[in-house]
Specification:
alpha+beta, Aminopeptidase
């Protein structure tokens, strides 16, 4: 049986595979790590995730990292705090990676008691066509301002193929009077559901729209006995605790 932390990591792996495949990128998976390489200069979607505290083939992994560096492809490295061993710390030092953020790993045991939405201000639609995908992209990119990462994400979504995205990745857009203002993503993996990309445009924050989208995502789980996992910032974790989520670990992100 997977630990709670492993549920979080394995669901993240599933998301990586789905969203890398949607742009015909490359997944490299070994016993101690998994790498998603979109061949696009975005550290949002180019990820290295630790799967073990022990690095069995250090030179092999360094070669993979060097591919990102040589080709000027930014990437982020995600390590469960429990896996942050001397092996990983040395690799991080050797590759000049710097800590960027820490996320709380959280888990809800089931959705048997998830109630209806608190409010119905949002019109929430599952992304199923090009127009809705453009709305999702508009909200997603609004959080990155005028940055190089936003430019890279424009390229990512330009290459994105919804036909290549499996049905277990469900994207949702929330609108107010036909204006897209919020997004949400639900990943259905073998052992858990994962919630990602609960985003609200700056001008609409603090009005409960993010919580409404979040509760809607919880209501979309088909297997109500399957756990739900997510990663939260220090500021956001209390919101999820109100829905019954519990802290199960910490993920450290290096860039």
């Amino acid at each position: 049986m997977k630990t709670s932390q492993q549920l979080v990591t394995s669901n993240l792996e599933e998301k990586m595979k789905l969203f890398t495949g949607a742009v015909s990128g490359q997944i490299i998976e070994e016993a101690h790590f998994v790498i998603a390489n979109t061949n696009i200069p975005t550290d949002t979607f180019n990820l290295l995730v630790a799967k073990s505290p022990i690095i069995h083939k250090e030179n092999h992994l360094k070669q993979r990292i060097n591919h990102f560096i040589v080709n000027k492809l930014p990437f982020s490295t995600w390590v469960d705090a429990n896996y942050l061993s001397d092996d990983w710390l040395q690799l991080i030092k050797d590759c000049n990676l710097q800590e960027a953020e820490r996320n709380m790993m959280m888990k809800l045991d089931h959705t048997l008691h998830t109630g209806p939405r608190i409010s119905n201000y949002l019109t929430i639609t599952e992304v199923s066509n090009k127009e809705e995908l453009l709305q999702y992209k508009e909200v997603f990119l609004s959080l990155f301002g005028e940055t190089a990462e936003r430019d890279a994400l424009e390229i990512y979504f330009h290459q994105f193929s919804q036909e290549k995205l499996a049905s277990n990745a469900r994207m949702f857009i929330g609108c107010i009077k036909e204006v897209p203002i919020a997004t949400g993503l639900l990943i259905d993996s073998k052992h858990s559901y994962g919630i990602y990309d609960v985003m609200t445009k700056d001008a609409y924050r603090g009005k409960g729209y993010g919580s409404e989208m979040f509760q809607f995502l919880l209501s979309q789980t088909i297997d109500k006995q399957k756990p739900v996992v997510l990663q939260a910032s220090e500021d956001g974790k209390n919101i999820y605790k109100r829905f019954g989520f519990k802290e199960v670990g910490e993920m450290i992100v290096f860039e």
